[in-house]
């Protein structure tokens, strides 16, 4: 996984007009993060067939809302495709002429749609970045991984990264197939941790704790452990060893988890998620393009 590159300076970053096609949760998260980060609302456009949705975004953030996708592209320096993967082909086909005329930097946040398919649907020859933000982006605590197609220069990479940085951490991969691994780890990852929290909460209740206390203790423990891991230079394995006293309670619990092959289960889980991501990418590209 490639290191992140320096961001554009603020004057360069604030000059770009960003058009969002789709006004759903992830677009809302990105717009919220950008505005909170000081991005001029007048430089942000959003288009969505649900007029109530775009009106709400305009009222909340002071951005410009449009009813027509192609009109939004006409002024866009950056085009963010934030629609569901299942309708991406239809949306791109409707944007093709406008995109080819304007030729903005295109950023797709749709899971599973590969760069060559997007290029084909939009007419080709574009600077195109794929990214996979995860759901904590909705509270500006996301992890977003980006892949730049062959037509993306350093300035455009920096511009794309600056947009995604508004909702959390960013990293780059140099090979598009790694986006399937990203989907398996960080894209689906929040659900894994929610499952662990759920299991701890239920186990705590089984030991006699009040349900509200079991929930609060599970969530706070997860938050504290994550913060310790983020703020420490030591790997999680060493942090785990430090809280595991020989012959103590933590050691007894970890022995049960290790006998159950917890690490092996997670490896199999991520392999299954990656395989499903690859299959969905094949289906979405082939079916949507009529091949």
Describe the protein.
By secondary structure, this protein is an alpha/beta fold. Helices cover 56% and strands 13% of the residues. The chain is built from 13 helices and eight strands. It has helices at 10-15, 25-36, 51-61, 69-74, 88-102, 115-122, 154-164, 178-187, 189-206, 211-231, 236-242, 249-259, 262-289, and strands at 18-21, 44-47, 64-66, 78-81, 105-108, 128-133, 142-148, 168-173. It has an eight-stranded mixed beta sheet with strand order 3-2-1-4-5-6-7-8, sandwiched between helices. α6 (115-122) links the parallel β5 and β6. The longest helix is centred in the C-terminal third of the chain and has 28 residues, at 262-289. It starts with 9 loop residues before the first helix and ends with a helix.
The H-and-E topology, N to C, reads as HEHEHEHEHEHEEHEHHHHHH
Name the beta content range: 5-15%
> Biggest sheet: strands side by side, in what order?
3-2-1-4-5-6-7-8
Q: Helix segment count?
A: 13
Specify the helix fraction band: 55-70%
The global form is elongated
First and last CA, distance: 32 Å
What characteristics describe this protein?
13 helices, eight-stranded mixed sheet, alpha/beta, 56% helix, disordered N terminus, disordered C terminus, 291 residues, 8 strands
């Amino acid at each position: 996984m490639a290191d992140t590159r320096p961001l554009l300076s603020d004057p360069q970053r604030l000059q770009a007009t960003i058009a969002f096609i789709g006004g759903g949760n992830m677009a809302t998260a990105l717009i919220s993060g950008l505005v909170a980060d000081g991005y001029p609302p007048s430089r942000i456009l959003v288009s969505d067939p649900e007029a109530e949705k775009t009106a709400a975004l305009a009222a909340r953030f002071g951005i410009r809302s449009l009813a027509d996708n192609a009109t939004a592209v006409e002024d866009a320096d950056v085009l963010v495709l934030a629609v569901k993967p299942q309708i991406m082909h239809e949306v791109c086909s409707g944007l093709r002429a406008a995109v080819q005329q304007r030729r903005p930097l295109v950023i797709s946040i749709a899971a599973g749609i590969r760069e060559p398919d997007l290029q084909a649907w939009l007419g080709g020859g574009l600077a195109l970045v794929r990214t996979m933000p995860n759901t904590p982006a909705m509270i500006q605590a996301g992890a977003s991984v980006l892949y730049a197609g062959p037509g993306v220069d350093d300035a455009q990479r920096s511009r794309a990264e600056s947009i995604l940085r508004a909702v959390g951490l960013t990293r780059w991969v140099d090979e598009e197939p790694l986006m399937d691994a990203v989907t398996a780890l960080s894209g689906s990852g929040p659900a894994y941790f929610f499952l662990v929290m759920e299991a701890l909460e239920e186990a705590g209740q089984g030991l006699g704790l009040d349900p509200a206390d079991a929930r609060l203790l599970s969530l706070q423990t997860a938050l504290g452990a994550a913060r310790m891991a983020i703020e420490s230079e030591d790997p999680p394995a060493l942090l785990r060893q430090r809280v595991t006293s020989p012959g103590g309670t933590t050691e007894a619990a970890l022995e049960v988890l290790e006998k159950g092959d917890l690490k092996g289960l997670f490896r199999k889980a991520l392999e299954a998620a990656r395989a499903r991501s690859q299959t969905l990418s094949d289906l979405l590209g082939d079916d949507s393009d009529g091949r």
